[in-house]
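In this section we turn from sequence analysis to structure. A common task in structural bioinformatics is to predict how a protein folds when a small molecule is present, because the ligand can shape the pocket around it. The inputs are simple: the amino acid sequence and a SMILES string for the ligand, here flavin-adenine dinucleotide. Study the lines below before reading on.
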Amino acid sequence: MLSDAAHVPGGFAEGVAFPRNESEVASLVVSAARVLPIGAQSSLTGGATPRGEVVLGTRALSAIGSPSSGRVRVGAGVALAELQRTLGASNLYYPPVPTFDGAFVGGTIATNAAGPATFKYGSTRRWVEAITIVLASGAVLDLTRNETVASPEGWFEIEHTTGQVVRVPVPQYAMPDVPKLSAGYFARPGMDLVDLFVGSEGTLGIVTGATLKVIPRPRRCLALMLCDGDDQAIAVASALREETFSAWKGLGLLDVAAIEYMDQHALRAVPDEAFSRAHVARPPGQSVMLLVQIEVGPDEEAALARLHSVLESAGVDDPYLAASGDERGAERLFSLREAVPSSVNAIVAAAQAAYPQVEKTAGDMVVPFPRLADSIELYRAAFESRGLDYAIWGHVSDGNLHPNLVPRTFDDVQRGREVILEIARGVVGMGGAPLAEHGVGRSALKQQLLRELYGEDGIDQMRAVKRALDPEWKLAPGVLFSSGQ
Ligand SMILES: Cc1cc2nc3c(=O)[nH]c(=O)nc-3n(C[C@H](O)[C@H](O)[C@H](O)COP(=O)(O)OP(=O)(O)OC[C@H]3O[C@@H](n4cnc5c(N)ncnc54)[C@H](O)[C@@H]3O)c2cc1C
């Protein structure tokens, strides 16, 4: 309760409550001086670590309605794994799941979570059809997409419980054109009010429930392949993306939803047991791996034949395959991918035991896909020029990778922070963003990256939005930015 998955020490709280409905949420918000909403606390940014607030746990907001017409009404405290289980009974599926499916619906909306399959399905934002929000004033907003859009002059009007109407300005900064972004407030001329709350990390209101779009459950197979280095991996990812764009136009057979990348350093961090469990041989030397999720129709064989011919043209050997329906095979391959962050995190924890100030120091970078090769080169050079150990993995089909420091000492961490800042600047220069999916939270480094992206003026524009909706700075204070006072 006093810490999230970023494991920043020193969390403390005024109290904790688990309201069961929106009126209990509203009463709590009205009576407390400062409130931090939390979901599953899987945040990697310290955003769900309390600093003296009343912690508003959402787990009792756990209702799941009956899906109908491709929509389902869900409480903020429902874990995505639970939602998928319920939807599975009707052969339905909610696509924009992060790698950690224990995250709650409210938390994923608050961070605009994304994940491996963003390539095909986009981030959480696209799937939120309606949302219920409790504001800092205790007012409850029921918002449905396309019903409330910003005025041509660039503001929303919102009525508080007192009857007072406030104008909320739409920030003027230009967001980078990338497939996923969790970098403060969404801003676009004529934007929908729903979008202001998606990705606002609990600072503008508390999500109590949402109506989400769902789809028929896709049939999926998995292929894990070995590439002899980055050039070959990028060539394969590129070819698979092109094949998929053709398939989406009805001109091809290979419909890829996600391509995950694990570099040689990341694979080296994974223990032998994890390879044995996955029934995969440890790759030699400088090899990197790609894990590809392919959605298949009735003609799975034809899709796999197409995959083989793409791989053959790229000079890549036959992959490890889990055909559709082979759930155990798929679990095994996924377990190898999951072993990458957990193995690196275990190394961080071991260094922390010796040097308590050590913390996870990692990037969440996204670049337009054509700049992927440049970005990987940039990440490697920044670590290597400082003699630092590192590992890189992530959602390569979106150009979204997580360059991670593998620290030995606190000195490594300090230099690792310089790396993250340096590569963030490079990524912004490539038209990308250093805050792709995990959000900003209370991490001083990530708040600095937000300033790199939008400048002080952009942060001031976000503060103006916050001030209009939460003048007492009651909700999630210190998340995204300081009050600036
Ligand atoms: C192993 C691992 C893998 C991960 N992989 C991914 C990934 O692939 N993609 C990705 O996007 N993220 C990933 N994450 C990060 C994390 O899972 C996401 O940020 C997730 O969306 C957080 O959900 P949560 O319920 O745990 O929210 P929390 O961590 O509890 O909260 C996150 C933020 O949202 C706010 N918040 C929570 N609930 C509400 C609410 N109801 N109303 C308003 N604000 C609220 C909190 O105040 C906090 O600022 C990963 C994390 C781990 C540990």
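Residues 4-5, 36-44, 47-48, 58, 76, 98-100, 103-104, 106-108, 110-111, 113-115, 201-202, 206-207, 341, 437-439, 441, 476, 479 surround flavin-adenine dinucleotide (CB under 6 Å). As an exercise, try to locate the residues that line the flavin-adenine dinucleotide site and compare them with your own expectations.
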